[in-house]
Amino acid sequence: MSADVAVLGAGMHPWGKWGRSFVEYGRAAAVAALADAGLEWTDVRSIVGADTVRSGYPGYVAGATFAQALGWQGARVTSVYAACASGAQAIGAARAQILAGLADVVLVVGADAAPKGFFAPAGGERPDDPDWLRFRLLGATNPAYFALYARRRMALYGDTGEDFALVKVKNAAAGALNPNARYRKEVTAEEVAASAVVADPLRLLDICATSDGGAALVLSSMGFARARGITEPVRIRAVSTVTPTYPRTVLDLPDIATDSTVAVSPSGESFRASIARAAYEEAGIGPGDLSLAEVYDLSTALELQWYEDIGLCGEGEGAKLVRDGATALGGRVPVNASGGLASFGEAVPAQAIAQVCELTWQLRGTAGARQVPGARVGITANQGLFGHGSAVVAVR
Length: 396
Known about the structure:
By secondary structure, the chain is α/β, with parallel strands linked by helices. Helices cover 36% and strands 18% of the residues.
């Protein structure tokens, strides 16, 4: 039995700081995705919402919130929360329902209205919450965490601030071509170097913003797509939502401890590498098959890490790829042809869905000025707090 499901529609609400409810962004994205699919909301038999935990009570029941905003029509509803991996979990839940025969058409929606500045845990005293603890005990905000990883790369591989800046320059150039991006202006390496230091060695333009935005997909069974005369749709072939394994020799915040390596040998791969490997194995492809990738560039340095984790190059070779232009538009394997989080910012429940929207448009050949010629296979890579893996493979 094929595990493929068809992507019939993709839609987004542009990213920015709009000052409105996340429900509005999600509804707009859903309406756009339905229109792209040529379907009515009443054709949808299931809706899966990726939750936000910052936007009031409705955020915790996002699936039902979006269903109500579109108009109650009896569709089954699912809500998922997996931090930044929420969108991939939502896609995975939708795919499972389709493959199980519970629904022929499923709408997946994620949206957020983000606070100004960096994300912080919800208020209150919660000593059993590792995210709360890393702020309280370590003072490790997200930018501090990103900077620690950047410093690690500098120490191990000789990466430089100039290498990190090239990632921003590349992504800003792609984002300038994307009408859904928040930041649509090219930048130079000199402008990155002149921006304020946030957490040394990372500067303001090395770190992604927090944003409002929404993204949606209409997924269906292959049979439903064929019945509508769609013989070669973009297909989702794999969804990886794996968790880490102990022992972990490199800590991922908010985890600030790991079990001992005395009794058990550590794994030969990192958590992030295992996310991509699981997706490749499920899809029956490898890194050499990729036409493009969308990865989670919370910081410029972290994008370089993803190059290695998704197998585009060996360990410590990420900076060489960006220096050589291999991951830019027109390069061997463009990464973040959308502009990435550098151009969008984080709208947490929407971003893993937005990554698949970009793959969909690229694989259809409808991405306009940022089109990757002949794109046939793409992967997304993402990671949520608390051990949430996130990778999706789409093919055409």
